[in-house]
Amino acid sequence: MTANANNRLFPQLSSPFFVGCNYWALHAGTAMWSDWRPEVVEADLRKLAGEGIEVLRVFPLWPDFQPIESHYREFGAHSTYRFGEAHVPDDEAGRAGVSEVMMQRFEQFSELSNRYGIKLIVGLITGWMSGKLFVPPALLGKSILTDADSIRWQVKFVSYFVSRMKREPAIIAWDLGNECNSMGQVQSREQAWVWTASLSNAIKHADASRPLVSGMHCLFPKGSWTMQDQGELTDILTTHPYPFWTPYMDYDPMDTMRPTLHATAESLFYGGIGGKPCFAEEMGTMGPMVCSDDVAAAFARTSMLTQWAHGLHGLQWWCANDQTRLQHAPYDEVACEGELGLLTEDGRVKLVLTEMAKLKREIAELPIAALPSRRTEAVCILNSDQDHWAVAYGSFVLAKQAGFDLAFRFEDQPLPAADLYMVPSVTGVRGVPKRRWEQLLKRVEEGASLYVSVDDGYLLHFSEVTGLSVQNRQRRAEAAKAALLATDEQDSTITVPSSFRWTLRCDRAEVLAAEEDGNPVLTRASYGKGTVYFMSLPIELAMTMGKETCSSPDVNPYWRMYREVAREAASGRILSKEDPLVGLTEHPLDDGGKLVAVLINHTPEAKTVRLRLKEGWQLEACWRGQAEAAGAAYMDVSLSANDGAVLLLMSDIR
């Protein structure tokens, strides 16, 4: 199958892949509105625009823009809302509790941005920022996300702000706010939905012409803040994929496969389950205590190429400026917030910005207006009781190493058409919901393939579906050791941390991999016109939770199991590879006789990889990198460290 055609998120941006950043002014950080210095802001904008930044995510700090204070009378009863001792004006802004001075400053900021050709995404409720909660005085102590009075004032603020600012040409999108799910506790999914719907409805009522960006992080398929609800109530989902903060992502060096695939995998995870386009709204390395400038640039280049190759539309770095000299919170309390900028405080442009701007130009100069959608062979269905991120990431990286692509869905969502359905690391006694399980089996009966692996999970009709019978089950005393049986590899043994051992009897299944004592761990059995693969080891969890498993595929060759499972489903691929550390995506052009291929080297060493071409196809052009034919069925592609190649392939068969 082929994913839906790409459409730019923001048509106002000229680049096929945009590069932006999150912005606070050089001189003041979060105090930029109360300490307004337009000459400093203009110098920032001029510098950023000159270095290739197209879009800024900006933040009207909530207590600056809605500085309401609650005054009280006897026994603590509420009396009035004021601005300090001043009465709130009897005009529209006053009724919304909004400062006219701050609105004028934001209008000036928008005019300056427009002057330098910079577009704005406005994070409306900026109550959480860089480790500090910012709240209007009248709302201090309230449950910000659930208290009715708090929600009332937030609705008033966004309604007025959006209505007044919607005529500003620099603004291309509204954002709910910065990680608003960090502003306080909610007790249920319903409370999170009500807050989001209240703000979303107010924003869309005030301006239906611009998209609404979620601005959230740490969403999950289950829980209070879900991808599905954010996708229902907003137009664009976002990730904030820092390897420093995201579970399991700092288990390998920054310029290797795990961190450089992170933003892409998480954005596709959110977008697939949320049902809306998604992009990395914040990303970065978290400064010089994590890696050098050279490594940061290599990380950014590899991640950016990967995001582009997988149909994402752009990224925004955190953040514009270093902030080491500020004496107020959060900068005097959170050391890691000081050196995250693209620009230093003395104006030096960091290598990471130079590299991203260069790559943006190179993508724009390719002889195609937009990269066609990538080919995906599989749909990965996440299960209720899992560590969803660990399973999703493990599945994604294993598929990438094995040479095929997948899309994400959750178990309660309809099944799209696919050649291969993957239900990885099933966890818990609930298993897969019966309705969805029966739909999956119906697809297999009609000719699709199904792969299921288990952690401690339970499956209905296990013997009928897999062709296996469970003889016994026990907790393992140590990691499992297994090997593929039919392979030319000298040593195909893998060691997989696993909680349980299933002793299995083959009734009609073919054994593809087994433990040292012959106990099957990967099997294949026919089911109707299709095929069912069963894996008794949770290799997806092992891949994600293991240290250096991604950067050392020879030591941890889990991907060979995935290659075996996807061999038939991926048979339509024009290119096949052997190097698991090289990413490969295929992008068929409309006429069917041509295809763009993108190869990405997820390592800090230059390499030459040999690719096998499907019969009837040949290399037509190399648009990036170096490639040459190596006989009738092969070609060699040279890849620089943490870099990629873009090839045009053509079919001889018309």
Describe this structure in words.
This protein has 654 residues and is α/β, with parallel strands linked by helices. The protein has 3 domains: 18-364, Glycosidases (TIM Barrel); 378-572, Class I glutamine amidotransferase (GATase) domain (Rossmann fold, 3-Layer(aba) Sandwich), CATH 3.40.50; 575-651, Immunoglobulin-like, CATH 2.60.40.290. The protein contains 15 helices and 32 strands. The strands form 7 sheets. Strands 15-14-16-17-24-23-22-19-20 form a 9-stranded mixed β-sheet. Strands 10-9-6-2-1-13-12-11 form an 8-stranded parallel β-sheet. Residues 1-6 have low confidence and may be disordered.
Which secondary structure elements does this structure contain, and how are they paired or packed?
Layout: E1 18-22, H1 38-50, E2 55-58, H2 62-65, E3 69-72, E4 78-83, E5 86-87, H3 92-95, H4 100-115, E6 119-125, E7 128-129, E8 132-133, H5 148-165, E9 171-177, H6 189-206, E10 212-213, H7 227-233, E11 237-239, H8 257-274, E12 278-283, H9 293-309, E13 314-317, H10 351-364, E14 378-382, H11 388-402, E15 406-410, E16 420-426, H12 434-445, E17 449-454, H13 462-466, E18 468-475, E19 480-484, E20 493-496, E21 500-506, E22 510-515, E23 520-527, E24 530-535, H14 539-545, H15 559-565, E25 575-576, E26 582-588, E27 594-601, E28 607-613, E29 617-624, E30 626-629, E31 634-639, E32 644-651
Helix pairs in contact: 1-4, 5-6, 7-8, 8-9, 8-11, 9-10, 11-14, 11-15
